[in-house]
Each structure stands twice: as structure tokens, then as C-alpha cells.
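BUG-429 | component: ligand-complex export | severity: low

The export step for pyridoxal-5'-phosphate jobs runs without errors, but we want the raw record kept on the ticket for reference. Input record follows.
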Amino acid sequence: MKTDRSAQLFTQAKTYIPGGVNSPVRACRSVGCDPLFVHKASGCMITDVDGNEFIDFVGSWGPMILGHAHPEVVEAIQAAAVQGTSFGAPSPLEVELASMVCKAVPSMDKIRFVNSGTEATMSAIRLARGYTGRKVVVKFDGCYHGHADSFLVKAGSGVITLGIPGSPGVPEDIVKNTLSIPYNNEEILEQTLRDTNLDIACVIVEPVAGNMGVVVPNLGFLRKLRELTRELGIILIFDEVITGFRLALGGAQERFGIMPDLTCLGKIIGGGLPVGAYGGKRELMELIAPDGPVYQAGTLSGNPLAMAAGLAMLRVVQRPGFYAELEAKSDWFGAEMEKLAAAAPVPISVNRIGSLMTCFFTRGPVTDFTSAMTADAALYGQYFRHMLAGGIWLAPSQFEASFVSAAHERSHLQKALDMTESSFKKLMV
Ligand SMILES: Cc1ncc(COP(=O)(O)O)c(C=O)c1O
Ligand SMILES: N[C@H](C=O)CCC(=O)O
């Protein structure tokens, strides 16, 4: 594969940008190659600056549920752009998207738009602390909630990929108010939440973990989490930045029938433009300024281009049969992957729910951070490189999700399966 132009750009990028990238996992270090620079993307295809074409299973880390450059999304952005790109004042599109999201997400009465998933989670824990008057945030090992100080404790995503245990620059005083406990472990959960020495304001959870690779929760664990937090007056925050509008129109909460107090969103609701949001019960959301004293603001929040893109995307996903179709093809794809994994020369464990999947290079089952960490990241690196050479664009880390989109047709998925079969055969232990 010719990669001269990407190599040139990477050299130039490293001169001006730390590691040559604007988000660490993109540097592809854990999979042993340099990043390819993207020229364009359309549907489920992505084309690099050297003209190589790939079937994309990253989808910009989740937002592109319709595939790239969906005509209705592009048209909406163009139409919004000619009216002005930011006003710093309310505009009608925000109201329309807010009402659409609140109607779709079962537990959400009110919503506040921000500019990223990180801003959403950071603001949600501030609100939880403001409401309860308590300090401690409980999270789960291997879950990732963005890069705000409070979350960089046993975090997932790039933090695992790069093997960074915490992060310099995050004061001890902040970290001591974050408690990270194992995912899917009801006993430790109950012990922790009932500990009267802890001043717990909230629990934040990915209702399906996507940032240590995909880890599906035991329903009993999520139910227990809901019961205990309700009983103990602790705010339950679902971080649905990945799962929102992906696992169902109403996200994981609709799929599992478990309602949090606050929900964080991002990715799909911005149609591929920078966005985040948090929302929930009226009584909580009315504490946010200017209605209440919990301050949170943003120059570009409710940006008209992001609102227009999000609205266009959400209109499409609400069409009859959208999720049933995405689910059916993901089920078929996942089942075929499981057959290939079972026949592979090395142990591989496939975790999947709906259109989210991770092949862990370990015997499994992978149910939490400890079992995810038994995966052989070097073997994943080999797999990644074989797949890339065969025209398949996967997440450049063992500890991330793959995403199937509405734009993937059976032929694309079959090509990915064929490449997977031959890549598995080439793996060298
Ligand atoms: C579950 C989850 N929460 C929060 C974030 C942070 O979102 P962002 O990268 O938009 O800040 C991400 C992704 O990065 C995520 O996957
Ligand atoms: N795992 C992250 C989002 O879900 C990956 C995105 C990033 O941090 O670049």
C-alpha cells in the first residue's frame, strides 16, 4: 500500500502538533504503525490522502450511524451555514433538537447542549454535586467519560491503550474525590455505595462499556445500581455518549428499561459535528444557571451547524425500521464473526450488542477491566495491520469498539468477514 503522502503529512504534523495528532489513539502507536491521513469519506468508505480506500468500522468513533456525508445531513449543514455559523444567542434549531431528544430519551425532561462528550460528563457531575451537596464521584474501572480531571482514574480508551495509569497535571485533591470500582461486580458496588464514610454524590456509568472494548453489563448489575442509588439518594448518571441513539432511539436506557437521573450524550446527536449534551429530570436540570446556581456555559453551545446536522441525522434514524434493520445486519455480522473466532488459531472472544462489537484476543469471557486486560494487544496489532492492508479500517486499539452503520451493506460486511478469516490465519503467536 502506498502511504507516501500520509507519511509526509505525519512528519509535518509532528512538528506542530503533539504526537502529530489531535487525540492520542489516532496516532496508532499500540498497533505498530503510523496513522493514515484521511482525504474524504462517504457512506461506509474512507479514502486516505494516497488514494487508498477502506471499509470503515470506526465511524468517527460512533457518530456516523448513517455513514459519512449522508446527503440529508450534508444538505442540512449547508443550509444552516449560509444563515451564519454561530450567533452566541438562542436560535430555533436548538429548540427543535432539544424537544426531539427529550421525546426520544425516556428519562430526559430537559437538556443542555455543550460541545463535546467531555463537557457533558463534566457538567453532569457538577450538577450532581450541586444537587446533593456531596463530593465523591463513583465510576467503573475501564470506563471512559472524557478527559476532565475527575475521570482520569483507571480510565478506558486512550488511557488504557497508552498504559497511562492516571495523568500528571491532575491534582491529588481532585482524584481523591473519584472512586473507581470494578464493572459488573454487584458485591463491591453494594459495599461501596453503602459505605457511610464516603460522601457519594453520583455514580457515572457507561450502560454498555465501549472504552475497554465493548463490555456488556449484566442486567442484574445495572438494576442493582439503579435500586441502590435511588435508595441512598445518589444521582445515577448514564454516560450514553456512545450508546445514545445507537442501541435504540432512546439509547441503552430504553433497551434495558432502566432509567438514570441524568444522561450524557454526544456523537450521534451532532451528526458528526462537535456536540455534547446532558439532561434529565426537571427538578435537577432546573438547578442549572440561569434557573439555578450551578454554573455552566459555552460560547459555541447550541451551535447552529451542529444542531442542523443532529436534527437531520435524528430524523433519519426515527424512520420506521431503522433500528430493526441495523440490528438484523449487526446480528448476522456478529454471528459470522463468532464462527471465525471459534475457528481461529488463537483464542478470541467476541463481545457484541447491537451495532457495537469488539474482538478480544483472549479466551474470555470479557466482563470487566481485569478480563479485558488479559487480551493480547500485540496480536490485535497484527490483526489490525492485516485488515488495513486488506482494505478494512478498524479502531487502532484493542480497547475500543467497532461500529456497524446503516451504510454498511451485506457486501461490505462479507468483505470484512473474508478479510478477518484470512487475517486470523496469518496471526503469529
Ligand atoms: C462514553 C464516552 N463518554 C465521554 C466521551 C468523551 O467525549 P468527547 O471525546 O466528545 O469529549 C467519550 C468519547 O470520547 C465516550 O466514549
Ligand atoms: N474512545 C474514544 C471515544 O469514544 C475515542 C475517541 C478519542 O478519544 O479520540
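Assignee comment: Attached the raw record above. The chain has 15 helices and 14 strands.
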